[in-house]
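Before surveying the methods themselves, it helps to consider a single example record, giving the amino acid sequence and backbone structure tokens:
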Amino acid sequence: MKKEDIKATWFVILIVIQVIAVICVLRGLGSEDKQDNIISHKEGFPMYVHGLAIDSEENIYIGVVGKINVYNKEVKFIRSYSLGRDQSFIFRIDENENLIIAIESTELICRLDGMIISDKILDYTDDREVKVIKRNSKIYTLSNKFYFTTVKCEDQKGNSRTIYRVPIYITIFRLIQMISFIILVILFIKLCIKKLEDLGISIDTNIGNRINKYNLEDF
């Protein structure tokens, strides 16, 4: 294969990767419903997951960017609480089944139907993210390894099962990000080696040979 063809092939691969990434992002977005409370019926793009809560009906509450998504026991999305901002926040459900949301130094208390009960300024910043919850004799654990989010439930007998996984389009988007990063690193190293060679600086041929295996000559 000619160098020009190889170059064109890599460009096409990068373009296809980015197109897929855009499709994944659009798949997770949607306009918010205009209501008097903070309830929304759009799942959004559930990335950068932080925080976990479980209500008395064992619905799963997961914090994402700018909102809290709620899923039922069958892991079907049922609603979200739109916070209208992208600052970091933590949340929990208290003994009265109220949703307590701390956004920086502000504490927002609302009912589970989304109606706001109070909104007050705190004299401290609470950043204790909840990842493990014990509810109805079960232990729920949020895992976010490599941003591939799961929620596991362990019963009294020690049996554990995964009750929530990040949507497949999020996994695809993450993989695309990693592949794109690897390709860009390879291209950057190749460019640096070429520049150094142009300056008459010798380069470890082993490194050059390893990079050349990716057929990125003269990219």
Observations:
- The chain has a mean pLDDT of 76.
- Residues 106 and 166 are 29 Å apart (CA to CA).
